[in-house]
Amino acid sequence: MNHHLLWAPHAWIDGQWQRGVCLGVDRQGLWTGITAKIHTPPVGATVLPGPVLPGLVNAHSHAFQRAFAGLSERRESDSDDFWSWRDRMYGVALRITPVQMHAVAAQLYVEMLKGGYTQVCEFHYLHHTEGGSRYEDPATFSCALADSAEEAGLGLTLLPVLYERAGFAQPTLRNDQRRFAGTPEFIHDLYRSAQSSGRARGNAGVAIHSLRAASRETMAALMKLVGDDDVPIHIHVAEQMQEVNDCLAATGLHPIEWLCRELAPDHRWQLVHATHATAAEINSVAGAGAGMVICPSTEGNLGDGLADLPAWLAAQVPMAIGSDSHVSRSWAEELRWLEYGQRLNLQRRNVAAAPTLAQPSTAARLFEAALEGGRRAAGAKKWGLTNGARADGLVLDTQSPGLLGIAPTHLLDALVFATNAPAVREVYVAGKQVVADGRHPQEKVIAGRFADVMKELWDHFEKQ
Hints:
By secondary structure, this protein is α/β, with parallel strands linked by helices.
């Protein structure tokens, strides 16, 4: 029996816009009885004020880095790259407290909701006190993130990260990485604790920071502890050419080549970035059934390079998107820059479109890929506007500048490629409205806390 009934003039179902859609929400917060071509709203139904899209999963996030977004866009030396950015980012990682983390993450998660995400995969490696010792409750930072997600109303997939060394030839962590340390047993305990917490809209998996950050033996030990648990397993891989070259020097193999040969990833695995992958490596990932997570705004911000999007799509590797360092918190912008990077590189348009596959819309093909890839990355059995999936939805504002006057058949195209102002009017997570008229009910309180924390953090840095 439906607990609540919604009606939308249009909704994105099975890869296309359908008219007059009824969406039932059951008492568990799942979609039920979704029916199209109901042109008159049923009595008692809530009439939604615009077309409805599924929410997307943000498949890669470092929440604490929201406190660093926009604050590394100057260069005081002859060169600047990912590695110099990382050293500056560690300044935030070394100082932020769990209370500050809660404030930063809550602000970020509200922004994600307003940007169209309804679930986030938190790649979480900030575990310990400022001195590097364990908290009395080892899950202190994990709980701060989970509390932030609950306050915002965003779904959370917590991915505690294995991080044990500074590089292929460095068997221990650097001093400025001391808060990241974790053994396989420690990471597995955090995962099990999060998985059994009973928090609404929450689940967990595990992550390995990167091949450079953990030995084969330690990674294998974590996988043995995870066993056959059907949960997400994420890893950074082949993001930077220096990482590729270091892996070649240490192992004689490219990173993804080594990963597929030594750890045999399966459908649970998500390869984050995978920017510098060879054709053979892409085929190996496809054969393993693993997915990849691409983060266009961060990869552009850090100068990582461009992934071979046509090859990944041709190989039918599941592809999710993430906002990573949070210089952007909107999936529409991520998809736009994913496509624009390819256009600039290849000097042609609509690279991701596939008319021979009956997918002529670039935005639709990328959105559908991110919808399914995100489901896998978050470890969800179902996702989208489909019976049995969590009742997450985005109501678009057709009066926003980018969508005004656009025919329903082209709304997704315009949202991705012609919109630079907020266009999400309402957001539902598990059937509960968490954004109304473009605003979150707690956004003023949350923003105030965030501003105070930013002042605390950056007053310190300004005095250095």
